[in-house]
Design the sequence.
């Protein structure tokens, strides 16, 4: 798997700061919490969060399903350290951090009840091989919950969206202050766009996203655009 163009360590240092202004990101967190609350999972499920980053989604899993066992998998040390500080602060003892590239991670076959993969599959080339790896981990009844950035990243569009939201909520000064502090995130988002346009990062529409999932052996339970139509959400089950 080729090294990603984006500097994930630089991204990690300011990621959570700007996420606090991103209502679409909050919607992703809420959607995952809602899914977990109603998902048909066994007692004490094993859940794997791939590309877990600074740990926000693993933390939601731990809060929603405190009896679960969670593997946080991410290859970036800076991301993992920031996640670890959150887990220790909030006493998320059921989360284990595995610092590894997804294709090099060693998990038992047919052992995982649910895999979460939020906005990182696009950077994991080749996607078909990663999805095959997921299938090898999942139990026959296992689920895959995946959100993936598929459309061209447009930092100016996002910046205007955040600014208008700040105007509506009457905290423009606070947003501008955080935007200046978190300008590294904007820089890395521009890098993401360059990598998308060069073909290094995978771009897709909703139908193409669904097709690769079904071709990789998954039954689609849900498929829809999300994240201001920049990404797609799919809930899949291991096709038996």
Sequence:
């Amino acid at each position: 798997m080729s090294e990603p163009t984006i500097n994930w360590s630089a991204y990690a240092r300011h990621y959570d700061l700007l996420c606090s202004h991103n209502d679409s990101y909050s919607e992703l967190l809420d959607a995952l919490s809602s899914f977990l609350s109603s998902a048909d999972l066994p007692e004490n499920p094993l859940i794997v969060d791939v590309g877990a980053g600074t740990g926000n989604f693993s933390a939601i899993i731990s809060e929603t399903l405190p009896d679960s066992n969670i593997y946080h998998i991410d290859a970036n040390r800076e991301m993992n350290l920031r996640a670890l500080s959150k887990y220790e602060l909030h006493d998320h003892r059921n989360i284990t951090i595995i610092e590894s590239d997804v294709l090099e991670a060693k998990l038992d076959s047919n052992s995982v009840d649910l895999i979460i993969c939020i906005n990182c599959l696009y950077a994991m080339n080749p996607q078909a091989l990663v999805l095959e790896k997921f299938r090898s981990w999942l139990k026959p009844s296992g689920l895959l919950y995946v959100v993936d950035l598929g459309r061209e990243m447009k930092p100016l569009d996002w910046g205007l969206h955040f600014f208008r939201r700040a105007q509506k909520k009457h905290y423009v000064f606070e947003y501008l202050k955080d935007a200046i502090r978190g300008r590294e995130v904007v820089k890395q988002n521009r890098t993401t766009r360059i990598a998308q346009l060069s073909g290094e990062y995978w771009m897709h529409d909703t139908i193409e996203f669904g097709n690769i999932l079904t071709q990789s052996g998954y039954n689609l339970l849900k498929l829809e655009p999300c994240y201001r139509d920049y990404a797609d959400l799919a809930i899949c089950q291991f096709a038996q």
Observations:
- The chain is about 45% helix and 20% strand.
- The first strand starts at residue 46 and ends at 50.
- The chain has a mean pLDDT of 86.
- The two ends are 28 Å apart (CA to CA).
